Amino acid sequence: MRSQRGAAIGCALIVLAGSLVACGDDGSPQVATGHTACNAVMHIGDSLSVGMTAEGQIPDAAERLDNQYRAVGVTDVRIEPEGGRTIHEITSGKQAGVEVARQARAAGYQGCWVIELGTNDVALLAQQLTTVGPRQRIDEVMAVIGDEPVMWLTTVSVVEKGYYDSANMEAWNTILRDAQASYPNMVLYDWASVARPSWFSDDGVHNTSEGFQQMARRIPTELAKVFPKTG
After folding, report:
1. How many domains does the chain contain in total?
2. Of 19, 45, 188, 202, which shows the fewest CB atoms inside 10 Å?
3. Is residue 15 part of a domain?
């Protein structure tokens, strides 16, 4: 992940990579909205989640992912980000996503889940470096989660060639959507339909600081929509 630094005047305006990111009208941070029924959230992710928790990408702590979850009512926030992470493999010593889930379950975790994984799985599958297919990867995670509420993000890039290209991302998303029919507790946040081209860095896969800020705010907001607190 690149760290993109800009000049800030309070919270009113931050200049990031040539674009302007506005805070609230009164100069306050932009925070997630709504209220979720999820008291606890286990968020497992890759380098995109690293960026959503990084001071170098999101200078205001209130706008980072952990505090955005708290803004919608999550009191037990657990974020497990790791650059280069896939669901199934241990790559360069990085713990597989499913193993993170298994360890959390073994430690007694109960609650909601957010799965921000798949981007590196897509590239690995495109290189034919694994025999573990997309559906098996999804099913492995769901076997650990059981019937607890879970929100998966779809994957997206603005790359038109190579292992991370957008066609490979959409192929993964198609399988993810098909898998959803087998799990009534599983919802999808279609990040691929939300992410704007201007939110991507030059590599077409990772985000700019603005993109990380938007992602960190919108994921908890969506969680509050799909698993709302009622009554």
Report:
1. 1
2. 202
3. no
Q: Which two tokens stand for residue 206?
A: 């990772």
Question: How far is residue 125 from each of residues 76, 94, 115, 129, 132, measured CA to CA in Å?
Answer: 34, 17, 19, 6, 8
pLDDT tens per residue, range 50-91: 999 999 999 999 999 999 999 999 999 999 999 999 999 987
* Domain-located, residue 29: no
* Assigned domain for 6 exists: no
Strand partners, 188: 152
At 88 the three-state DSSP class reads coil
Q: Which two tokens stand for residue 160?
A: 């038109």
**Contact (Cβ atoms closer than 8 angstroms) between residue 207 and residue 48:** yes
What are residue 203's phi and psi, to 5 degrees?
A: -80, -10
**What is the rounded (10 degree) CA torsion for 125, 180, 169, 171?**
70
Pair 211, 19: CB distance under 8 Å? no
Range of the domain at 208: 35-226
Question: Token digits for 222?
Answer: 């969506």
| Residue pLDDT, tens place only, 203-226 | 999 999 999 999 999 999 999 999
